Amino acid sequence: MRTLSISVLSLALTSIVVANAYYQKKQFYPSVVYITKSNPSMAVIYIQAFICVWISGKIIKKIFFGQLRTTEFEHLMERSWYAITETCLAFTVFRDDFNPKFVALFTLLLFLKSFHWLAEDRVDYMERSPVISWLFHSRVLSLLLLLGSLDLHFIQHAYLSTVSKGASVQLVFGFEYAILITVVINIAIKYGLHSVDLNSETPWDNKAVFLLYTELVMGFIKVILYVAFVAIMVRIYTLPLFAFRPMYYTIRNFKKAFSDVILSRRAIHNMNTLYPDATPEELQAADNVCIICREEMTTASKKLPCNHIFHTSCLRSWFQRQQTCPTCRLNILRNPATVPPQRQRPPNPPNPFGNPFFAGQNPFQMFNQPNANGAEQAAAPGEQGRPAGLAGAERQAAPATTHQPQAAHAPPPFLFPPFPFLPFLPPPPMPPHNLAALSPEELLRMEGSERENVEARIQCLRNIQMLLDAAVVMMQQYSTTAILSAQMPAPHAAPNPFPATGPPASADSPKVAKVAPTTSGSAQAAPTTGHSGANSGAQASSTIDKPGTSKEEEGRGEESTTEAGIEEEIRRRRLQKFVQAQTHAGGQD
Amino acid sequence: MAGSALRRLMAEYKQLTLNPPEGIIAGPINEENFFEWEALITGPEGTCFEGGVFPAKLVFPPDYPLSPPKMQFTCEMFHPNIYSDGRVCISILHAPGDDPMGYESSAERWSPVQSVEKILLSVISMLAEPNDESGANVDAAKMWRENREEFDRIAEKIVRRTLGIPT
């Protein structure tokens, strides 16, 4: 409404000025001279010209864009303010040949620039709009054609004028239009990519990559144009201050495009080399929806080390920004599953104990051998099979744990080597030294969530259970031996397994003494139930096979009593302690 | 096919329309433009914002869901984590790169796994339990810490205003 009244007012003023001139001079030519000589009349004419430009701009906008969206309008306003300031700066450089024609040319440049911006915004909007009509396509195409041909025309004009008349303000126009034509080409390429994507039935995964490369190449051309322009301007005139801001933004955009391309390439490379494609079975097992785009995964999806599955293209665009799993934030660059851990960490991790003997060896294998021997020596012959089997189980479990690099390279605990013949102490999975020093990711990685890790943990727990059972059997064996050796009244020795834990503990080593109370704890919990009571915490499977073994041991125990010699002597000593312990326990009860 | 951001927003809109979570209504302001949404959030029960219905605007970036949307309450709000112009300051809305307050761990930042629904649920829980360390509105944070009755009184006034009840 206001613009309308302003235009009407301006039109009225212009007609008054023209009518006045014609009324005074009566003829066409003298009246024109009169108007151009009179400053107030010229001012009115200039205002009228400006309003004409404004109106024509509105009309062209209406033809090619229809209604502008709010964001488009805001962009336009923001950019035109900068452009106007820069144009005023440009005037200062060329103040010697400042004339109406010069102003008109700059206005035209600004006018065309604003349509380039609008076209850019409009084409970007293609990707975000649910409905693209044929009207949209025809508008964009014709606009691009018009802008492109105008740009070319002005470049040609600037070139010819520079060649024939030498360097002038046309140099600036030449460069400005050259940059505008790169904008037009950029928009055209984007438009082509978007329309191909819109017409295809399935999402076009590589579009983002093409867009990135377009951005990179166009950015490069623009940077070269700006640098050349500034260099030439510095040589011929002076420092073109008005070109600095756009040049800065162009260089910044180019840098961003460049790093985007690098990041994207790295992401693609990582995905192709490190992560396996998800198999149809895995897709079936999961809920089959890519959580990034919320669409079904039928083709091209990747599985990360943390077992989360996404579309390849979704992952690529995310990895361009961040190298983490979108779901669990696992840092994927630091934990590629298919690369052996050695390549990720220094090959020889520092050994805090400075002990070359242990460096790089699997601690489990080291301890298993002495354990088996120790069992042979200290335990009853019937127990021999068991620790060996356990050792085997431990060896199987070991590779699973080495999957977690931290566990694999943790230095072996210092306490173990001095006691190589502990019969019932399998080395537990090596814990890292200081859990508090580890970062959350490392802890998470060490913990592991894959099937094999869980299996390894279960296996480990089973081993511990088996060892506990073995310990109980041993105790029983000791007590039966005690009965059969008939060196003391038997009846109440067997029902109470608690004292039986004492002798092996004190006899073998102080290290066992630490473990024995834990087993005796479970025995204490149900002291009245006797033999089986000791096993109350154990699983059914182990309690089933236990009586058999204990009977067997009783038999073997009888055999061993017939054996004379050192073994007998050792037993006797143990039994003495056993009696002491029993009386002690009796006192407690 | 339309752009991936648009398809994802359409999918979320469909999901929110089919299974609306309790206390949340959200959708595009008009279906021509899926990148600007309007949401209505009810104040969580048992808090000073109980009973209120707070309108907010969500603006999505062209690269959603790789970048988080922006959320701004369009009604008057008085809360430690809401700027006086209504913008919401909550870690789920910040991309992992930027940290305006310098305290958030990257684990609670934006990731493409988040959604409009999760954002709005987080905002509801933020209404229930303000984080007075972030202090988008310092006055509100100070009052929340030191003068809870006054804070409750202002919150109640805002609730009444959103419901159109004279205070």
TrEMBL record, chain A:
Residues 1-19 form the signal peptide. GO terms for cellular component: endoplasmic reticulum membrane. GO terms for molecular function: ubiquitin protein ligase activity; zinc ion binding. Residues 290-329 form the RING-type domain. Its EC number is 2.3.2.27. Residues 343-353 have a biased composition (Pro residues). Residues 337-412, 494-572 are annotated as: Disordered. The keyword Signal applies. Residues 354-385, 396-409 have a biased composition (Low complexity). It is found in: Endoplasmic reticulum membrane. GO terms for biological process: ERAD pathway; proteasome-mediated ubiquitin-dependent protein catabolic process. Keywords: Endoplasmic reticulum, Membrane, Metal-binding, Signal, Transferase, Transmembrane, Transmembrane helix, Ubl conjugation pathway, Zinc, Zinc-finger. It is a multi-pass membrane protein. Residues 517-544 have a biased composition (Polar residues). It is an enzyme of class 2 (transferase). The chain crosses the membrane at residues 43-60, 102-119, 131-155, 167-189, 209-237. Its main location: endoplasmic reticulum. Pathway: Protein modification; protein ubiquitination. Residues 548-559 have a biased composition (Basic and acidic residues). InterPro entries: HRD1_E3_ubiq-ligases, TPR_SYVN1_N, Znf_RING, Znf_RING/FYVE/PHD, Znf_RING_synoviolin. It catalyses: S-ubiquitinyl-[E2 ubiquitin-conjugating enzyme]-L-cysteine + [acceptor protein]-L-lysine = [E2 ubiquitin-conjugating enzyme]-L-cysteine + N(6)-ubiquitinyl-[acceptor protein]-L-lysine. PANTHER family: E3 UBIQUITIN-PROTEIN LIGASE SYNOVIOLIN, RING ZINC FINGER PROTEIN. Belongs to the HRD1 family. This is RING-type E3 ubiquitin transferase.
UniProtKB/TrEMBL annotation, chain B:
InterPro entries: Ub_conjugating_enzyme, UBC, UBQ-conjugating_AS, UBQ-conjugating_enzyme/RWD. The keyword ATP-binding applies. Coiled coil: none annotated. GO terms for biological process: ERAD pathway. The keyword Transferase applies. Residues 4-164 form the UBC core domain. Its EC number is 2.3.2.23. GO terms for molecular function: ATP binding; ubiquitin conjugating enzyme activity. The active site is at residue 89. It catalyses: S-ubiquitinyl-[E1 ubiquitin-activating enzyme]-L-cysteine + [E2 ubiquitin-conjugating enzyme]-L-cysteine = [E1 ubiquitin-activating enzyme]-L-cysteine + S-ubiquitinyl-[E2 ubiquitin-conjugating enzyme]-L-cysteine. Keywords: ATP-binding, Nucleotide-binding, Transferase, Ubl conjugation pathway. PANTHER family: UBIQUITIN-CONJUGATING ENZYME E2 (PTHR24067). Interacts with AUP1 (via C-terminus); the interaction recruits UBE2G2 to lipid droplets. Interacts with ubiquitin ligases AMFR/gp78 and RNF139/TRC8; recruitment to lipid droplets by AUP1 facilitates interaction of UBE2G2 with AMFR and RNF139, leading to sterol-induced ubiquitination of 3-hydroxy-3-methylglutaryl coenzyme A reductase and its subsequent proteasomal degradation. Belongs to the ubiquitin-conjugating enzyme family. Accepts ubiquitin from the E1 complex and catalyzes its covalent attachment to other proteins. In vitro catalyzes 'Lys-48'-linked polyubiquitination. Involved in endoplasmic reticulum-associated degradation (ERAD). Required for sterol-induced ubiquitination of 3-hydroxy-3-methylglutaryl coenzyme A reductase and its subsequent proteasomal degradation. This is Ubiquitin-conjugating enzyme E2 G2. It comes from Phaedon cochleariae.
